[in-house]
Structure formats: structure tokens, C-alpha cells
TrEMBL record:
<dbReference type="Pfam" id="PF13516">
    <property type="entry name" value="LRR_6"/>
</dbReference>
<feature type="transmembrane region" description="Helical">
    <location>
        <begin position="260"/>
        <end position="282"/>
    </location>
</feature>
<feature type="compositionally biased region" description="Acidic residues">
    <location>
        <begin position="723"/>
        <end position="740"/>
    </location>
</feature>
<dbReference type="InterPro" id="IPR045203">
    <property type="entry name" value="RanGAP1/2"/>
</dbReference>
<feature type="compositionally biased region" description="Polar residues">
    <location>
        <begin position="111"/>
        <end position="127"/>
    </location>
</feature>
<keyword id="KW-0812">Transmembrane</keyword>
<dbReference type="InterPro" id="IPR001611">
    <property type="entry name" value="Leu-rich_rpt"/>
</dbReference>
<dbReference type="InterPro" id="IPR032675">
    <property type="entry name" value="LRR_dom_sf"/>
</dbReference>
<keyword id="KW-0472">Membrane</keyword>
<feature type="region of interest" description="Disordered">
    <location>
        <begin position="1"/>
        <end position="24"/>
    </location>
</feature>
<feature type="region of interest" description="Disordered">
    <location>
        <begin position="45"/>
        <end position="148"/>
    </location>
</feature>
<feature type="compositionally biased region" description="Polar residues">
    <location>
        <begin position="186"/>
        <end position="198"/>
    </location>
</feature>
<protein>
    <submittedName>
        <fullName>Uncharacterized protein</fullName>
    </submittedName>
</protein>
<feature type="region of interest" description="Disordered">
    <location>
        <begin position="717"/>
        <end position="740"/>
    </location>
</feature>
<dbReference type="GO" id="GO:0005096">
    <property type="term" value="F:GTPase activator activity"/>
</dbReference>
<feature type="region of interest" description="Disordered">
    <location>
        <begin position="186"/>
        <end position="227"/>
    </location>
</feature>
<keyword id="KW-1133">Transmembrane helix</keyword>
């Protein structure tokens, strides 16, 4: 019996098999060796007991005398049973301890890790039987999976352990099925006692009930006598085994404790190092991935400086906090696809988990596809979830959909704006330069609506209609109702097409915006009714500081309404009323109101150009000028004030306006006496730097007197160009009365003999049928006659024609023009007209002009989509000898650009050469596809001498294609303007090669062309290598930095005819400028007249280098622009003193935007 126990224990738990056991640790090997030694001793003792039993006369279990034993035999049996029980107990304890040792890893063991590791024999038996039987019943147990499992089950004599696993599993299942029908083993000898090994082996072949029965039978057997000495020996051996086990356990505990003490400090140090590394990574990522904090002034310069000309944002609109944390995607203009969007977002990946609190978001100047918009919107959502937008106050979504089809553009706007719909803390929103109709405005509702804190709003150059303007006013800004005021301080609404309806809608906003300080409502196509309504609404704005109402039609009545408003605006500093049609009565009322209300004393800039003003209103203006102590700039050009009006202004300027710097009075019918009076009025003013009086009627003698006077006062540089002056020897001061008959005769002569035609009244207005008749009659056109009209050039620009007005013009004028007509100017003729009417107006006019073989067609400043271009086909096609074609500021889409290229430029045939010599395509929205379409037709435009493809939202690939096409096909260019394209490395290479092949090139403009220093150097080398002598060069906005401008200087030394050099906004510091000046200060650039370095990072040291070293060597220099730099007050004083000492005080431009930094003096 004992031998069976030992054998089965050994078979079940030892690793002594034909298959190599898994490698054991030193501790495990020791424990296993000790257990095996103890087991051998027990086997020997059990063998001795078994030998005695076999020699005696014992009865089997089936003997009939079993139940009739004597007292003595029972006592012996009991004693023997007790002794064997002790032996069996020792064996069980050894087995239990051995079972606690780690076994080789098996797949079944992984699932059993959470079960008790130390069990009694009966417990292990029960677990094994239950689990395996359940698996059999569920048909889930697959039998043994390794040779080791086969031997553990005691089946190595029935299963081929070298057979495939599937065969082994089949053999085991067959044995188990046969075992179900085998007879019970209850008839075994008295020595058959079940241990854990019996249970584990038998449980594979017998049901659970049989196990229970065998256990009961084993308890009922009689045992032989056992020697007490042997029992004592077994007990001592078991005790020794316990001691050895305790020693090993203690050793194991000490080893684990030692490891804890050694490795725990190392682990803590590792954690600390990891934390510091993470903090360093976050700090580094904030710099690398543009989590940049900049002050408000710097933010203004870097984020919107390039839009100042279109829609300048005032300083007050950007100062929201002492610092800004800006989220932006840096880089040049480009088409952002889904892949590119992922790349842009990825630049923030390292810090996205713990982003900073952003205050400003800008996505301007890139064109996004809908897929890209979804990527960025998801990025915004993740940042918002992490609290990154808790302090967000400013969103700049200007110019994001250029070149996108309308449906896609609307989806892009909606996707990005909806991504920020939960943010209601915004104070500034800029949506300029996006083509927004009513649908577009509504697409932005996620961003625009319910912004209670909004202070600064910009809608510039959006082409907004009257309906869209109404939505902005009522649903965006006045969403809380007509009784709740807004918090608006800035509202810019420029270059839109809202007309009267928009003016009336936005007028409702003004009484509810009492905090407004900066209002720009200009170029809206508003006519008399709308302008008057808007003017009357201004009366509530008592805190206004800047007012721009230019390019509207207020007329005298509107001017009086403006006057009533400005009388209560004591804080006004800037007023722009250019082309506002206020006329004399309007100006008189406004000037008086400014003087009486006290605002005149603080006015720094006043522009009343293009308002049909005469000498009659100049005395009132003069009275205001006497009180304007702060006035620096006065503009009165394109009026009819004559010498009399000029003298009235001069008289006031002589005694007032001590801070005056500039007067612009071009094209005013001023004669010699009036011009001389103006010169005398300003020549003694210390701050005065510029007098523009070109386009007047100053005699040659008068010009000589003016130049002599200025030279005697060392101010020759004050006088601007007189290139367009009309030398008229007749004195214009004598006023002659002319009879009505004489005027009629004069008009008749003009009608017959003049080479050009345009309306005398140039003010913007709506022209219906009645007004069209008046205008034609006033210009000498007899509308009731059908006699032929002979003009070489006609212009109908600057007025908004209705259907009926266009029909009158077409029938009474255009249809009578003869074949000598060569130039047609229909620029800006549909402003404010609904789309359907605008298309009809264009169609009527162009149809009336069909059949003329023209040299020049100008359709600029009309909102032309593809339909608009096709509406002009009667004028544009056929034109077999067309030389000049102008499409500027039309908002032309990619589709419309393709029509122009393929059907107009190539109208003579795809293989025929175009007759075009000049092609102007500026400020459109044609994007990538439009640029490629134009580039593809240059092969048939080899006669081009002027190419202007600028501000058309071309990305890098399209820009490179344009440069490649110029490089391949054009050789006669005199003027090339590719500003606002995006030339990267390859594009710059193509551009440089193209320039090197233009020997006649004189004017090169590459402003904001993404060239960087390397690209500019390539261009300059091309100029030098081909000995091209430029007259004008503009490389502004190309991030030259110090290295780039220094390299450029060396290459400009050979430009002996260069008159104008513009290097604005190039991140140049004083160090780079000093090197630039040092290279060019000798005999280089002898013809230079103008140098512009605005918007750089120049301090006093660099500016002084220009004035003291560069200026004295340039005899022709008349203008130096250094504004928007960082020149200290002391530096400015030094510059002015130095120029005065050289007799060139007047060449320095305005420094109004200069940011004086006292620390720059210490450089």
C-alpha cells in the first residue's frame, strides 16, 4: 500500500520523466531534492511493513470471517491502523508542501492562479475530478496538450507522447470512454488507499460517484501491525523535513526583504527623473509648437499687420490682456487638405494632453477643404474637453475659404464655427476676406450667436449683401432684443455690397452700441436713402474716436445728418469722408459742427477728398483748421476748389495746425497762385514733410517759383511729383461769366471732338432711367438724336446702374458709338445691385458695345462669378486685337478664372498666339485651380509685357506652376507682380530662372511671396547674372531677417537705375540693417529715391545708421520710411536732428506707429 502511495505520488508530482522538465530556481531544486530523499526513506519503511503483512495469515476483505474478529486481533488491527494513519499523514504533509512549489508553466495553470495553491489530498482530488468532468460534459476539455500533461495524467503507457497533439487528445478521449464501463476496483487488497495521485489519475477514467465509494472502502480495511521504532523513525524524518523547509522559507523571506531595500530607492529615483523629464518636454513643446505668449502689441503686429491696408484692426481691439496665448498654424498661404491638416495638428501633439489656456485662435490666410475642417474641428473639441479654451477671447477666421466651391466653403465655415459653439466668452471675432452671403453668415452662427461679451467685430471685404447685413444686425449682434445694448467698441464693415438695405439694417445697431469707439462703414455701395438713414443713427455714438464713412453716397442732406452727430463726439481723432458725396453744404455743416462741438482741437486726420467741393466751402473748412492744433494729415484731393479755395485753406493753415505733416490737394484745378499760397502756408512748419499738388493747372513759371521758395528754405523734398500737372500759362484766378448759350456751344464742341468720355459728376450714385438722362444731357449727349458719337475711350465707372438706367445708357449712348472706340471702362457699375439685376445690367451694356475691336477692357470692381463673366461675353468676344484686360477686385472664383483663361484669352484658338500685352488679375479668390488655369494659357501669351497675378490665394503648388510657366514661355516682361503667391524652394528656383530671362524687366513686385532669405537671394542673383536694371523692387513680407538682407545688399550694388526699394515687414534687426547700410553706402544705388523699411524690428541703432551713413550718400533720395519699428524717443530725436543738419528733414516719413523702446538706446 505504502509503495503504491509513493509510486503514485512520484508519478503525479515529480519531474523525473523522459521529457526534460522546465528549469527550476536554486531554491526550488533544493526543496525538490529534499522531498525526494524523504520519499525514498518512507518507501523503504513501507516496504518493510508490506513484507511482514505478506508473510502473515491475514484474511482478505472478502473473507466471511471479517465481521467475527477476536478482541486481540481487533486491537492489533487498530494499532496497526493508527500507525499506518500516521505514516499516511506524513506522506500527505510532504505532498501538500511539495504541491506548493511552482510547477512548470502550463496553459491550464494560468487560469488557476487565483485558486488555493496548497490543498489536502482530498481537496485536490475533488477539484481535479469536478473540473475535468464539467469540461467533459460541456465538451470543452481537449485532453492533454503537451507531453508533460500526458505523463501527469499517468497515461504515458496508453498514449504515444511523440504523436501529434491532436492524436494524443483522441487517444485520451478513447481511454476515458472505455473507463466508464470498467468494473469497480472496490475488490482490491486492503493495501489500496487513495491519495492525491490516485484521485488525479483515476478521475480521468471514472465518474465522481466511484471516487467517493473507493474512499469509503479504503477507510474500512484492516491494516497490518507496524513496528513502533519504524514509526518513530518516520516521525523524526518528517520533523527534519519541516526544519529544512522552515530554513528555506526564512532564506526566501530574507532575499525578498533585501530586494525591497535595494530596488525601492532606485525605483523612486527613476520616477523622479521621469517627472523632471516630462516637465522639460512640456516646457520645450510650448516653444516649439507655438504655444507662444506675446504681449498685445506684438500680437497686433504679427497677426494682422498684413491686413492693415484692407481692414486695419485698431490697437484697442487687440488689447484684451497683458499677454496672449495664441493657437495658430504658421506658414504661408496654402490649400490645407486632410493630410496637411493632420500635419498641422500634429505640431501640437506633444503638448495636447496638457495644453495652455489659449486666449486667441487664428486660422487666417489658408484655404481649408471640408476634410481638413473636420480634422481641425476634432482637434478643437479635444482641446476644449481639456479646458484649453476657458480663457479664449479672440477668434480670427479671416480668409479661410478662398478658391473653395460655394457648397464646400459653407461646410468649412459651419464645421469650424460649430466646433467653437460652446465658447461664449469671445470679445473679438474677425471673419474678413471670406465671401459671405446670407448663407455664409448663417454658416458661422456656431461662432457668432449669443456672444454677450463681444466688443470687436470685423466684416471686411466679404461681399456681404443687404440680406446678410440684416442677419448680422438682428440675429448676431442684437440677438437679445431691441432693448438690450451691445458691448461693441469696434465695428468694421468695409468693401461689401449691402447697398441701401444693408445700411438701413445696420443703422438699427448704432443706438444700441453706446460704447462704440471705432466705426468703419465704407465702400458699402449705399446710396442716398440708406446713407441718410445710417447718418442719422450716428447721433447716439458720443464716445466715437474713429469714423470712416468713405465711398458712400450721403449728399448734402446726409452731410448735415453727419454734422449733427459729430457735434456730440468730442473724442474724435480721425474722420474719413472720402468719396462720400457730401458736397459743399455737407462739408460746411460738418466743419462747423466739429469746431462748435470741440472735436476740432483733437482731430489728427481729416479726409474730404472726392466730394465735389468748390471754393464755396473752403472758408468754413479754414475756420475749423484754425482750431485743429493736433491735425497732422489733411486730404482734399479730387475736388474743384481752384486757386480761390486753395488760398482760403492756406490762410488758415498759416496761423493754425502747428503739428501739420502732410497736405494732399491733387486734381483740384488749382493754378499757380493757389499752389504758391499753399507752399507759403506750410514751408515754415517744423513737422511738415509732404505737399502733393499734382494734376492741377500750375504754369511752368509757377512751378519754378514754388521750387525756388522751397529750396531757399531747405525744403525742396517737401514737394511731391508734378508729373500730371497741366502747364497752363493763363492765370486761373480771373473768373469770367459765361452765358448759357456759350456753355451749350462748348459742350457741343466737346461732344464732337473729345477723345474720351466720362460723366462730369463723378460721385457714386444709383442711376435709374431719369438720372441716366440727366447725366447724359449734362455731358453734352443729346439723347433725342441718333447721330454717331466718336470717342476713343469711354468710362462709366463708379456708379450703380439699375435695369432702366442701363437701358437708357445703352440706347441713347453706347449704341451710337462708332468704330474708333478703343477703350471701354465698365469698372464698378453694379455695386449694390441684386445678382439677377446685376447680370442684366452687364448684359445690356455689353450687348450695346458688341462689334467694337478694342484695345483695352476694364471690368474691375464688379462682383463677377462665372455667370457674370459670361454676361460680358458680347463685349469680350470676339476681340481679335485686344491688348489690355483688367479683372481686379472681382472676387473671381476658380471656375470663372478658367472661363477667362480658356474662352477669353484663348478666343483666337488654342494654337493661336494671343494679342494680349497686359493682363491684370488682382485680389480675386481663384485659389489653386484658378492659378493653374491662368498659368496654362501663358504659352499662348508670349506678347505679354505686364503680368499682374497678385492676391489671388494661390498655394505653393499653383505658385510654382505659375513661375514655371513664366519661365518657359515669357521673354518680354517689363513689369511682373506675383505678390501674395506662395513660392517655396522649388517655386523660388523657377521664379529666379524666369526673371533671369526678362532682359527688359523694370518693375518687380514680390510682396508676401513666401520666398524667405534663400528665395530672395536666388532672385537677386538672377537679376545680377542677367544684368537686369530695375526701376522698382518690392520684396516686403518675405522673412529675410538679418542674414537675408545682408546677402541682398551685395547683390543690389549693381542696380544703378533703381529708384524705389521696399523691404517692409522682413524681421530685420539693427544688426542686419547696419551691415546692409555698410555695403550700400558708397557709390551704390545712385538713383534711389525711396527706401521703405517699415514693420521690421529696427531700434535706434539701426535707424541712426541709415540716417548718418546711408542717406548722405544718396543724392536722389526723397523718402525714407521707418514707421512701425522700435526706435526709442531719443533715437527719433537724433534722426530728426541729423536729417535737419543735412538739409533733408522732410524725407523722413511718418513715425506714428513706431513703438519707442527706451532700452534700445543702450545698444
Amino acid at each position: 500500500m505504502a509503495a503504491q502511495i509513493a509510486d503514485r505520488s512520484n508519478a503525479a508530482m515529480s519531474f523525473n520523466s523522459g521529457e526534460s522538465a522546465p528549469e527550476l530556481s536554486k531554491l526550488e531544486a533544493t526543496r525538490l531534492a529534499l522531498a525526494q530523499e524523504q520519499k525514498k526513506r518512507i518507501d523503504a519503511a513501507v516496504a518493510r511493513v508490506t513484507g511482514k503483512k505478506e508473510g502473515g495469515k491475514r484474511k482478505g476483505l472478502s473473507s466471511p470471517d471479517t465481521g467475527h474478529r477476536s478482541k486481540k486481533s481487533k486491537t492489533v488491527v487498530d494499532v496497526a491502523s493508527d500507525q499506518v494513519d500516521k505514516k499516511n499523514s506524513i506522506a500527505r504533509r510532504m505532498v501538500d508542501r511539495f504541491s506548493a512549489m511552482p510547477e512548470p508553466e502550463r496553459e491550464q495553470d494560468i487560469d488557476q492562479q487565483n485558486k488555493p495553491t496548497t490543498r489536502s489530498v482530498s481537496t485536490q482530488q475533488r477539484y481535479s475530478a469536478e473540473e475535468q468532468e464539467e469540461e467533459v460534459e460541456k465538451d470543452q476539455w481537449d485532453g492533454p496538450t503537451t507531453n508533460y500533461h500526458v505523463k501527469q495524467l499517468g497515461l504515458d503507457d496508453k498514449v504515444d507522447i511523440y504523436a501529434p497533439v491532436a492524436q494524443q487528445q483522441h487517444d485520451v478521449q478513447r481511454v476515458r470512454e472505455r473507463a466508464k464501463y470498467m468494473p469497480s476496483i472496490s475488490g482490491e487488497s486492503i493495501n489500496t488507499i487513495k491519495t492525491s495521485s490516485d484521485s488525479e489519475a483515476d478521475s480521468d477514467f471514472a465518474p465522481k460517484e466511484r471516487l467517493s465509494q473507493e474512499s469509503e472502502e479504503s477507510d474500512a480495511v484492516s491494516l497490518p501491525e507496524v513496528d513502533a521504532s519504524e514509526t518513530q523513525a518516520l516521525a523524526e524524518e518528517a520533523e527534519e523535513f519541516d526544519k529544512q523547509t522552515a530554513i528555506q522559507t526564512a532564506e526566501t523571506h530574507r532575499t525578498r526583504t533585501k530586494r525591497v531595500f535595494v530596488y525601492t530607492p532606485l525605483f523612486i529615483v527613476a520616477i523622479i527623473v521621469l517627472v523632471f523629464a516630462l516637465l522639460f518636454a512640456i516646457d520645450w513643446s510650448q516653444e516649439t509648437f507655438q504655444f507662444c505668449e506675446i504681449d498685445a502689441k506684438s500680437a497686433e503686429v504679427r497677426l494682422i499687420s498684413h491686413t492693415k491696408a484692407k481692414c486695419p484692426a485698431p490697437e484697442s481691439s487687440l488689447i484684451m490682456a497683458t499677454t496672449k496665448t495664441v493657437l495658430s498654424f504658421e506658414g504661408e498661404r496654402e490649400l490645407v487638405t486632410e493630410v496637411r491638416a493632420h500635419e498641422l495638428v500634429q505640431t501640437y501633439a506633444n503638448s495636447e494632453a496638457q495644453p495652455p489656456a489659449f486666449t486667441h485662435i487664428t486660422l487666417r490666410n489658408k484655404s481649408y477643404t471640408i476634410e481638413a475642417a473636420h480634422v481641425i474641428a476634432a482637434f478643437f473639441s479635444r482641446l476644449e474637453a481639456r479646458g484649453a479654451f476657458a480663457q479664449l477671447t479672440s477668434v480670427d477666421f479671416a480668409d479661410m475659404i478662398a478658391g473653395r466651391p460655394e457648397d464646400e466653403a459653407l461646410q468649412v465655415l459651419a464645421t469650424l464655427c460649430d466646433a467653437l459653439s460652446a465658447i461664449k466668452s469671445l470679445t473679438r471675432i474677425d471673419l474678413s476676406d471670406n465671401a459671405l452671403g446670407e448663407k455664409g453668415v448663417r454658416a458661422c452662427f456656431g461662432l457668432l450667436q449669443n456672444q454677450e461679451k463681444l466688443q470687436h467685430m470685423y466684416f471686411c471685404n466679404n461681399g456681404i449683401s443687404a440680406a446678410a447685413a440684416g442677419v448680422i444686425a438682428e440675429e448676431v449682434l442684437l440677438f437679445r432684443g431691441q432693448d438690450t445694448p451691445t458691448k461693441l467698441e469696434t465695428f468694421h464693415f468695409y468693401n461689401n455690397m449691402s447697398g441701401d438695405g444693408g445700411a438701413i439694417a445696420l443703422a438699427k445697431l448704432l443706438p444700441l452700441s453706446p460704447a462704440l469707439k471705432d466705426l468703419r462703414f465704407s465702400a458699402t455701395r449705399a446710396q442716398r436713402e440708406g446713407s441718410l438713414t445710417f447718418a442719422k443713427a450716428l447721433a447716439s455714438l458720443t464716445k466715437l474716436e474713429k469714423l470712416d464713412l468713405s465711398d458712400n453716397t450721403f449728399k448734402a442732406q446726409g452731410g448735415e445728418a453727419i454734422a449733427a452727430a459729430v457735434k456730440n463726439m468730442p473724442n474724435l481723432v480721425e474722420i474719413n469722408l472720402r468719396d462720400a458725396a457730401i458736397e459743399d453744404d455737407g462739408l460746411v455743416a460738418i466743419a462747423d459742427a466739429l469746431r462748435e462741438g470741440g472735436a476740432a482741437r483733437g482731430i489728427t486726420a481729416l479726409d474730404v477728398s472726392g466730394n465735389d467741393l468748390t471754393a464755396a466751402s473752403m472758408p468754413a473748412l479754414g475756420q475749423m483748421l484754425r482750431d485743429s492744433a493736433a491735425l497732422r494729415v489733411l486730404q482734399v484731393e479730387e475736388n474743384e476748389i481752384g486757386s480761390k479755395g486753395a488760398k482760403a485753406i492756406a490762410k488758415s493753415l498759416k496761423v493754425g495746425s502747428p503739428a501739420l505733416e502732410k497736405v494732399v490737394a491733387n486734381m483740384n484745378e488749382i493754378g499757380a497762385s493757389g499752389a504758391l499760397a499753399l507752399v507759403k502756408a506750410v514751408v515754415d512748419k517744423k513737422a511738415f514733410v509732404k505737399l502733393d499738388i499734382d494734376g492741377n493747372q500750375i504754369s511752368a513759371g509757377g512751378v519754378a517759383n514754388i521750387e525756388s521758395l522751397l529750396e531757399s528754405n531747405n525744403k525742396s523734398d517737401v514737394l511731391g511729383s508734378l508729373e500730371d500737372n497741366d502747364d497752363d500759362e493763363e492765370e486761373d484766378d480771373e473768373e469770367e461769366e459765361t452765358s448759357v448759350e456759350d456753355v451749350t456751344v462748348m459742350l457741343d464742341k466737346v461732344t464732337i471732338s473729345d477723345a474720351s468720355f466720362e460723366f462730369e459728376n463723378k460721385s457714386r450714385e444709383v442711376v435709374d432711367a431719369a438720372r441716366a438722362l440727366q447725366l447724359l444731357e449734362a455731358s453734352g449727349i443729346k439723347v433725342n438724336e441718333r447721330s454717331p458719337l466718336h470717342f476713343k475711350s469711354i468710362s462709366l465707372r463708379g456708379k450703380s446702374y439699375t435695369d432702366s438706367g442701363a437701358k437708357v445708357i445703352a440706347d441713347s449712348f453706347l449704341s451710337r458709338l462708332q468704330s474708333d472706340l478703343k477703350v471701354v471702362d465698365l469698372a464698378d457699375v453694379i455695386a449694390g445691385r441684386p445678382e439677377d439685376e446685376a447680370l442684366r445690367v452687364l448684359s445690356v451694356m455689353c450687348h450695346a458695345l458688341r462689334g467694337h475691336a478694342l484695345d483695352e477692357i476694364d471690368l474691375s470692381d464688379n462682383a463677377l462669378g462665372e455667370k457674370g463673366v459670361r454676361a460680358c461675353f458680347d463685349l469680350l468676344i470676339p476681340q481679335p486685337t485686344l491688348r489690355r484686360l483688367l479683372f481686379c477686385n472681382n472676387g473671381i472664383s476658380a471656375a470663372a478664372a478658367s472661363v477667362i483663361a480658356q474662352e477669353i484669352v484663348l478666343q483666337n484658338g488654342k494654337d493661336a498666339q494671343s494679342t494680349l500685352e497686359e493682363f491684370h488679375f488682382y485680389n480675386n479668390m481663384s485659389g489653386h485651380d484658378g492659378c493653374v488655369a491662368v498659368a496654362n494659357v501663358l504659352a499662348q501669351c508670349k506678347k505679354l509685357t505686364l503680368l499682374r497675378y497678385a492676391s489671388a490665394r494661390a498655394g505653393p503648388e499653383a505658385s510654382e506652376e505659375m513661375a514655371r510657366s513664366v519661365n518657359t514661355h515669357l521673354r518680354q516682361l517689363k513689369s511682373l507682380d506675383l505678390s501674395d503667391c506662395s513660392f517655396e524652394e522649388d517655386g523660388a528656383t523657377q521664379l529666379a530662372e524666369a526673371i533671369s530671362k526678362q532682359p527688359n524687366l523694370q518693375y518687380l513686385k514680390l510682396r508676401d511671396a513666401s520666398l524667405c532669405a534663400e528665395g530672395v537671394e536666388k532672385v537677386a542673383k538672377a537679376l545680377t547674372s542677367s544684368n537686369i536694371q530695375l526701376v522698382e523692387l518690392d520684396l516686403s513680407g518675405n522673412e529675410l531677417a538679418d542674414e537675408g538682407i545682408a546677402a541682398l545688399a551685395l547683390l543690389l550694388k549693381s542696380q544703378s537705375q533703381l529708384k524705389v526699394l521696399r523691404l517692409d515687414e522682413n524681421e530685420v534687426t539693427s544688426e542686419g540693417l547696419k551691415e546692409f547700410v555698410a555695403v550700400l553706402s558708397a557709390d551704390s544705388l545712385p538713383a534711389l529715391e525711396e527706401l521703405s523699411l517699415c514693420g521690421n524690428e529696427i531700434t535706434a541703432k539701426g535707424a541712426i545708421a541709415v540716417v548718418d551713413t546711408f542717406v548722405p550718400t544718396k543724392m536722389a533720395l526723397v523718402r525714407v520710411e521707418l514707421d512701425t519699428n522700435m526706435i526709442s524717443d531719443k533715437g527719433v530725436e537724433h534722426i530728426k536732428a541729423s536729417l535737419a543738419k543735412q538739409g533733408k528733414a522732410n524725407i523722413l516719413g511718418s513715425l506714428e506707429e513706431n513703438d519707442g523702446d527706451e532700452e534700445s538706446d543702450d545698444e
